[in-house]
Amino acid sequence: NKGNYEHYMQKEIHEQPESLKTTMRGRLIRGGSCKAKTVLLGGLKDHFKTIRRSRRIVFIGCGTSYNAALAARPILEELSGVPVTMEIASDLLDRQGPIYREDTAVFVSQSGETADTLQALEYALENGALCVGITNTVGSAIARHTHCGVHINAGAEIGVASTKAYTSQIVVMAMLALAIGGDTISSQTRREAIIDGLFDLPNKVREVLNLDQEMKDLAKLLIAEQSLLMFGRGYNYATALEGALKVKEVALMHSEGILAGEMKHGPLALVDENLPIIVIATRDSCFSKQQSVIQQLHARKGRVIVMCSKGEAVSVCPGGLGRVIEVPHVEDCLQPVINVVPLQLLAYHLTVLRGYNVDQPRNLAKSVTTQ
Ligand code: UD1
Ligand code: M6R
């Protein structure tokens, strides 16, 4: 049921404040007499000891689910102290890459039925790793075959382009990081800031959804482009990859997410007055590096569109050069949840304006059950 919406993708983008609430329901604990703030993940409680002792955590997934894990990687590294590596399921299988008994392998999948991810799970089980699932579908193959896991509880996702599952996956992995990380004195302020940020996240997502019309206007400007680049780094490298994946899969426009730190190692050669480039430069520890990326793009007459924190247009666009997308500022590790929303809206409007099928893009299936 699409309700008042024209497409499932549109509905699913706009219901993110609610789906995120459902994801966190009963899992975030605040208050009480000692004002303790904690995270409860029922599906993992008997396994945290093993996870903390593992030699590394390996995230495994495809497409959007891989991107969500990439977005959560920095906070998991920071809070858990365990090395975190990333594997695209098909690539792990192609290489028959190393997976050990001492590993915790985390399988991220909205459908829980993706063939590549499922086969990588079988491979990791054979190799003796602790296998954890992060899935949206209760009773799915991945939920059944993993040793333990967390359901993201985002509600059924119908549109082929994954939107609300992405933001719920990131939130679950941020909660996972909090749950694995010890409650040391030194990390207390940080942990509390993240938990407060999680509580407030649905409100902030509601706020960023107000950019709908602005994103539609931007889509009108970009409707006839051949290509669109997105530059991100740090917490928002994943945002660039995910924004580009959305644009290519539904709007059928070439789009590439690029790690901004790699700009001088090749992509800079593409820059001219015509190619649109979205640079994600919200306030975090990478901000000054992104400012210099923006300067270098301007120096080459690049057509730059900057995503920045609210009120910071002046510091990212000196002299009013280029367009800006201002988004609400949240705790750095949660910023990817906010930043992806305007890009989802942009992909959606580009698709409608270009006249393509939003919910059933050409050649794609919601659940990829063949290899
Ligand atoms: C569970 C109940 C929820 C109830 C809550 C009350 C289910 C599906 N969930 O939620 O309805 O309100 O207790 O305490 O009945 N699992 C995997 N692999 C996965 C995902 C999950 O093995 O990919 C396992 C978990 O380890 C767990 C079970 O499935 O044993 C349920 O997981 P989850 O729904 O996340 O647990 P709770 O949040 O505790
Ligand atoms: O169901 P899964 O999360 O395992 O699916 C993985 C990918 O097939 C999926 O995310 C795909 O990239 C989407 N169409 C992206 O919107």
Features:
globular, 371 residues, alpha/beta, 5-stranded parallel β-sheet, 44% helix, binds 5-amino-5-deoxy-1-O-phosphono-D-mannitol, binds uridine-diphosphate-N-acetylglucosamine
What is the compact description of this entry?
With 371 residues, the protein is α/β, with parallel strands linked by helices.
SSE inventory with pairings:
Layout (H helix, E strand, L loop, with lengths): L7 H7 L1 H9 L3 E2 L8 E2 L8 H6 L2 E6 L1 H18 L3 E5 H7 L7 E7 L5 H12 L3 E6 L5 H5 L2 E4 L12 H17 L7 H21 L3 H11 L4 E6 L4 H15 L2 E6 L16 E5 L6 H13 L3 E7 L3 H4 L6 E5 L7 H20 L17
Parallel strand pairs: 3-4, 3-5, 5-6, 6-7, 8-9, 8-10, 10-11, 11-12
Antiparallel strand pairs: 1-2
Helix pairs in contact: 2-8, 2-9, 4-8, 4-11, 5-6, 8-9, 9-14, 10-14, 11-14
Describe the overall structure.
The chain is α/β, with parallel strands linked by helices. It is 44% helix and 16% strand. It has 14 helices and 12 strands. A 5-stranded parallel β-sheet has the order 4-3-5-6-7, sandwiched between helices. Helix 12 (287-299) links the parallel strand 10 and strand 11 (303-309). Helix 4 packs parallel to helix 8 and helix 11 runs parallel beside helix 14. It is globular and about 55 Å long. Bound molecules: uridine-diphosphate-N-acetylglucosamine and 5-amino-5-deoxy-1-O-phosphono-D-mannitol. 5-amino-5-deoxy-1-O-phosphono-D-mannitol binds at residues 62-65, 109-111, 114, 117, 160-162, 245, 249, 364, 367-368.
